[in-house]
Amino acid sequence: MISVIIPTYKSPDALDLCLESAIKGQNKDNQIIVVVDGHYDLNKEVLEKHKDSIDVLNLEQNVGLCRGTNLGVYNAKHEHILIVNDDNVFPYGWDLNLMMAFEASGGVLAPNQIEPYPSMFSQFHIKDLGKTIEDFNLREFWEYEIDLSEQKLENNGSTLPIFMSKVDYLRIGGWDENYELGMVADWDFFLKCQLSGLKMQRTYLSHFYHFASVSTKGLPRQRAEQSGHEHAKYKWGDYIKHNPQNNLKYIWFPKILSLYFPKLKIVESPKSKLKKHKKTFVEIVNRLKDQHYRSKDLHKEFGIDTTWYEDNYFQIIEQLIIENYGELTSEAIFWWVYDVPTSREENYSIEEETSGKRHIIRTTTQLYNTLKKLKLLKKE
User: Fold this and answer.
1) Does 129 share its domain with 216?
2) In CATH, what number is assigned to the domain containing residue 114?
């Protein structure tokens, strides 16, 4: 059986149709988890209507799409998970079709979508079966979708909904909760899947209907998208690109973090180079430290083991640190990231092997200055 995770915010009408199609269209009694990201009262009537067929995870405060989805996955009972937005409609027989396709694909599987408008995703089937919830007829959609169904897999499965194993989801760290409102978080997630060796394929055995952005209606979308792109660039560099086939392309791996280790194409003054080198060092070390302690907070608050150490993102960053700063400097960086608490009531220090002199470290900037003073940093 499958554990379905449906995050929802302020779209009770869309959620009602989504749940109706999921429940009536399944062949087995799957676990359907509705993650209510605040505004429970707004969705209460719909949740009560379907209460016998769903599990409700009520988050009293709005924590965002990414954290809400992660919490939903942590509560999944079954081996396989399906992540669906509340503005999707399930096709008839969705569970058996997805399991059948997954047996042939493995990795990450994306069922294809039907949308009423042409979109940037050329694989999506365009058919206007209703531009709004009120115009939509579930029976008509099911009859139309059955005729589209075919046993075909393509290597371009980097769109939602997402069907995969819970183990793989947790192994790569789930959704990055630093993306505001979830914008650009899907790109980030699929890149981590790709880097971890998971195949990403699309199945045409099952088509979900998508109303497009109903789930984010009323949210500050433009600001969230800008914030998401800034975080993606900050985290991954300039090499995430979205092509017309919706595949994430990355170039010159392992130099994927060009933001952190840029090849300077213009002549810069030594002072400017030094300033940029220092800023880059502090940013990447602080990012690694923040991610590490955020995972520990999740474990402390919810009793959840997120296995962040196995996250491929950490492995990539650590390898790049070693390549760019050397083994000895990397040891000092990893000590600072993993062994030194974020709340420090005492001073931490590095001791010189030859003289025995101790250098007090309170901040990442002080760590950089100390390593530079000890000539442990590669030349900028």
Assistant:
1) yes
2) 3.90.550.10
Residue 263 lies in a domain: no
Residue 289: Cβ-neighbour burial (10 angstroms; 0-12, 13-18, 19+): middle
Give the mean pLDDT of 263-284: 64
pLDDT at 226: 75
How many angstroms from the chain centroid is the CA of residue 260?
21
Amino acid letter, residue 190: F
Residue 332 tokens read as 């000092």
Give yes or no for a contact between 154 and 123, defined as CB atoms under 8 angstroms apart.
yes
**Mean pLDDT, range 27-41, rounded to an integer:** 94
Tokens of 198: 């998971």
Instruction: Check whether 290 has a pLDDT greater than 80.
Output: no
361 and 308 housed in the same domain? yes
Asked whether 22 and 90 are in contact (CB, 8 A), the reply is yes
Burial level of 53, CB count in 10 A (0-12/13-18/19+)?
Answer: middle
pTM over 0.90: no
Query: In this structure, are 188 and 280 located in the same domain?
Result: no
Contact indicator for 98, 163 with CB cutoff of 8 Å = yes
As a whole number, the mean pLDDT across the chain is 80
343 — pLDDT class (breaks 50, 70, 90): very low
What's the first-to-final CA gap in the chain, in angstroms? 54
Q: Which of residues 126 and 122 earns the better pLDDT score? A: 126
